[in-house]
Amino acid sequence: MIKICRVCKENKQEEDFPKRTKRPDGSIIRATICKLCQRQVSKKHYKENKDMYRARDKKKNKELFKFVREYKENSKCERCGISGKGMPESMDFKHKETEIKKGRISKLVQFSKKNIIMEEIKKCNLYCANCQRIVEVERKHGHHKKK
Ligand SMILES: [Zn+2]
Ligand SMILES: [Zn+2]
Fold first, then answer.
1. Which ligand is nearest to the CA of 39?
2. pLDDT digits (tens, 9 = 90+) for 80-108
3. CA 21 to centroid of ligand 1, rounded, Å
4. Range(s) within the chain of domains with CATH label 3.30.60
């Protein structure tokens, strides 16, 4: 038996249409979309979902970025005491030398979860741009030079 596919409008063999259900008399009800078109539809569906998941991930990351930003705004440089208010961009986390770091906070934010970020922040000192540079130099030259 020849059927016309609802989507591609082509004449196809009945076998080219996916089985749906059985009628009480045992005859098979088939889909009105051929297998080929069905595959296209599910592919499209998958793609759309993927985009949705991606958008959701993006949103999650945005929230994490915001969280870290606010954390910086509400903190002070641990060296000079300057507030991060209004300049969170210049505040940065620096891992304490005794801690094993998972990664930079700015990197982790891109794919991590909030609890992981929190764990990592605990291993860090927060410094303003100025102090970051100073601490960097101090570390390079060894601890004995610290006050
Ligand atoms: Zn078709
Ligand atoms: Zn500072």
1. 1
2. 999 999 999 999 999 998 999 999 998 89
3. 19
4. 2-46
Residue 86 burial (C-beta neighbours within 10 Å; 0-12, 13-18, 19+): exposed
Q: How many whole angstroms separate alpha carbon 105 and alpha carbon 120?
A: 7
Residue-wise pLDDT tens digits, 27-47: 889 999 999 999 999 888 888
- With a CB cutoff of 8 Å and minimum separation 6, the contacts of 49 are none
Ion ligand 1, residue ranges at CB < 5 A: 5, 7-8, 34, 37
Q: Residues 77, 126: contact at Cβ < 8 Å?
A: yes
* pTM of structure: 0.63
Compute, in angstroms, the gap from residue 41 CA to the centroid of ligand 2. 57
Beta strands 11-13 and 2-4: pairing type?
A: antiparallel
| 2-46: in CATH 3.30.60 | yes
Could you give the angle at which helices 35-73 and 114-122 cross, rounded to 10 degrees?
30
Q: How close is the Cα of 97 to the center of ligand 2, in Å?
A: 18
